[in-house]
Amino acid sequence: MERNADRLSDILDLPTLLSSAIASSAAQGATSVTNYATALDLYSHIKRLHLLYSDSPLIDSIYAQTESAMQDLKSHLITSLRGQNIKLAAAMRTIGWLQRVAPELEFTKNGGGNKEGLLGYLFLVCRLSTLVHTLSALEPLRQLADQESQIRLRNNSRPGGAGKINGNAYQGGQQSERYVKKYIEIFREQSFGIISMYKSIFPGSTDEPTAEVKTPFKSASSGQSKAKQDMSTIHPSALATFPSHLTDLLFDTLKEYLPNVQDKTSKESLLTQILYCAGSLGRLGGDFSLMVAMLDAGGADVSHSSEDDDDETGEGEWVEVMKKHRELAGRLEALASGVGAGKGVDKGGSLRVKSRP
Questions:
Q1: In 102-138, where does DSSP find H-type helix?
Q2: What is the DSSP-derived secondary structure letter of residue 97?
């Protein structure tokens, strides 16, 4: 006992050292690579001791304290995934540490499911929470836009009252324009970052199709029960429906506040911004440019000022903006591809070759 007193003292200090490493890593955030690595090494050492001396009450007590501390570590790692400006390297390290701390999140049983396991879902949920929190900073602008929505609805409910309410001129949705513009800017940057970061952390996670359920034809009842059992173990890729959820989040806001914008130039500018956002996500497989037509369907009560032409409709607006956007995109693509000195771009966005004398 006297000869092993130092070793026993070191073993008894392991939970304290682990808790200190976890507290230091939590204070420094995702950049604390050394402290997180030290905590994981201590945890691995304690697990080995528990396997070697599973009959020892002392080791059982130390292991129980360790498991309690590791729950705090899991919480800190998940919280770090919700960081406002988390970088790709820090996110990849955090996912790697979670794979060691919480192997139960790697769902790969029976050959079904996806490569990233449940960690993919966890990552997207954390980043979506950050996106929603960032958008909530626009609450003052949203409140002003809500006031314009109320004015617009009162205008539409009164015959011949499309221009004034109680003698106060309607400002044409200036606050709504500011809110929607800021909203799209944040949404475009954050959504592109989330999906691109996900594909870098979980490469090839969406390349393979979901495993098919094979049911025997010998017995219909046994085949159905086996199919239900297999279906319970199959998890589609976390990214399969996430872009559509992001699109719904954006379009719910657009359908509510875009009809407030009455100025034609301002509305065309916002529609162009939406198309650029769709093109940005389109590079990652989430293009929603064709859904712009749904904005007019959702905002059928959009009223136009008296300066607009009588034959102008909401459909004409988005069609015209779409044509201009494609024309400009074609020109930029032609310039980016290295157009030679003897080539140019016509009005339709296609290349033309100048004739030489």
A1: 118-135
A2: H
